[in-house]
Amino acid sequence: MIAAGVEFALPDEKLCGTCHSWLPRDQFAKSASGDGRQRRCRECHRLSMRAWRARKHDSARSVARYRADPEYAKRVRARSRIKMRVKAGTLPRKPCERCGAPEAQTHHPDYDKPNEIRWLCVACHGAEHYPEAQVEPAARRDAAAEGLARLAEKYANR
Prior knowledge:
By secondary structure, the protein is mostly helical. Helix content is 45%, strand content 10%.
């Protein structure tokens, strides 16, 4: 609807941020922010996601590697199986086995046994894969305490 050269939207219409078309509100997916609808219409969102996936996931290369490299396929299947079990709730998350940190990742010691996993935090998981590059926990703790002391000294007189 146009009045005096200004466009007005009906209350049941919304302007798409991509194609700049006024469309019915039901053409926009629901959203928790703003006016309760996404800024792009469903069609523009679909096209945007298709382009993003093409950039992000080179599926042809992934499929070729999956088919050509049996070790890679074995790792993908094992990780996928565990991820789906965690998502379904049949495999509860656990704390790190080494240090007890509450946030832990899964680690497969042997991909031939995909259901045998260990729960390790990020630091312990890195130590499992790269033991020569790890700093002892005591040294890491001392360095963190030193850094906090410097910060406290810096901001003490503010």
